Amino acid sequence: MDPSSSGIQEPFDLIRLSLSERVFVKLRGDRQLTGILHAYDGHMNLILSDVEETIMIVDVDDENVTAGSKTVNVAKRKMDMLFVRGDGVILVSPPSRT
Amino acid sequence: MEDDNSPPPPPEQQPPPPPSHTGSPTDFLKGVVGKRVIVRLTSGVDYRGILSCLDGYMNIALEQTEEHVNGAVTNRYGDAFIRGNNVLYISADEPL
C-alpha cells in the first residue's frame, strides 16, 4: 500500500508511534482520558499513567424541559495508573501534534 | 398556452455523473486512502479528515481531523485513530 505522508501503513502504527507520549482517548459514555501511553494490544486495551479522566454529565433542566435547555457538568478525576478495556475506546489521538 | 418562442427542451440533458467507480467495497477503500473522507460513527459524530490508512477491522487513521457534532466543529486532531467497531460509514469528501 502506498505509504502516506506520515509514513503510517496501518492504523496501529499511529498508536505505536504514540508510546510513551501523552495521548487523548475518547471513550464511550461521554468520557475522555489523557495520559501517558505505556502499552496497548490489538483490542486497543490500553495502559495509561498519570491519567486525567473527564466525564461529561448532561442534565436536562427539569424546569425547562420543553425549551430543551441542558446543563453540562464536567467531572474530573485523576489516576496514577489505568487499564482501559479496548471495547470502550472510540478514538485515540496524540494531542501534542494538533 | 402555446408559445412559439418557448425554448425547445435541450437536445441532450446533461448526462448524470457516471459512476466514477465500479468495483468491490475494498476497491473503494483502496481508492479513498490519501483522500479527504467523512467518517460517521454509529453515535452520529462525524470525523472529517484525510484518510491515512485503515485495516480489516475498519480501524482508521485520519490526519487533519475535525470532529463534527450536529454540524459544528467540536474538536480538531492532528492525527486520530478510530476504533473500527464504532464506524457506520466512510464517505469520500472529494472526487475519486
From TrEMBL, chain A:
- Record keywords: Nucleus included? yes
Q: Which residues form a coiled coil?
A: none
Keyword annotations of the record? mRNA processing, mRNA splicing, Nucleus, Ribonucleoprotein, RNA-binding, Spliceosome
Subcellular locations according to the entry: Nucleus
The terms under GO molecular function for this entry are:
RNA binding
| CDD domains per the UniProt record, alphabetical | LSm3
Is the keyword Ribonucleoprotein in the record? yes
Gene3D superfamilies (UniProt xref): 2.30.30.100
Domain named Sm: residues: 13-94
Top-level taxon in the UniProt lineage? Eukaryota
Q: Could you mention a single GO BP entry for this protein? A: mRNA splicing, via spliceosome
Q: Which GO terms describe its cellular component?
A: spliceosomal complex; U4/U6 x U5 tri-snRNP complex; U6 snRNP
Q: Pfam families of this UniProt entry?
A: LSM (PF01423)
Q: What family does this chain come from, according to its entry?
A: Belongs to the snRNP Sm proteins family.
Q: Could you describe the subunit structure of this protein?
A: LSm subunits form a heteromer with a doughnut shape.
Q: What's this protein's function? A: Binds specifically to the 3'-terminal U-tract of U6 snRNA.
The molecule here is called LSM complex subunit LSM3
| Protein source organism | Pleurotus ostreatus
Q: Which gene encodes it?
A: LSM3
UniProtKB/TrEMBL annotation, chain B:
The protein's matches in InterPro entries, at most eight in alphabetical order, are given as: Lsm6/sSmF, LSM_dom_sf, Sm, Sm_dom_euk/arc
This protein is called U6 snRNA-associated Sm-like protein LSm6
Against Gene3D superfamilies, the record matches this protein to: 2.30.30.100
Q: Write out the function statement from the record.
A: Component of LSm protein complexes, which are involved in RNA processing and may function in a chaperone-like manner, facilitating the efficient association of RNA processing factors with their substrates. Component of the cytoplasmic LSM1-LSM7 complex, which is thought to be involved in mRNA degradation by activating the decapping step in the 5'-to-3' mRNA decay pathway. Component of the nuclear LSM2-LSM8 complex, which is involved in splicing of nuclear mRNAs.
Query: Which biological process, per GO, is one annotated for this protein?
Result: maturation of SSU-rRNA
Q: Which PANTHER family match?
A: SMALL NUCLEAR RIBONUCLEOPROTEIN F SNRNP-F, U6 SNRNA-ASSOCIATED SM-LIKE PROTEIN LSM6
Gene that encodes the chain: LSM6
* Keywords for this protein: Cytoplasm, mRNA processing, mRNA splicing, Nucleus, Ribonucleoprotein, RNA-binding, rRNA processing, Spliceosome, tRNA processing
Return the Pfam families for the record: LSM (PF01423)
Record-level Gene Ontology MF annotations: RNA binding
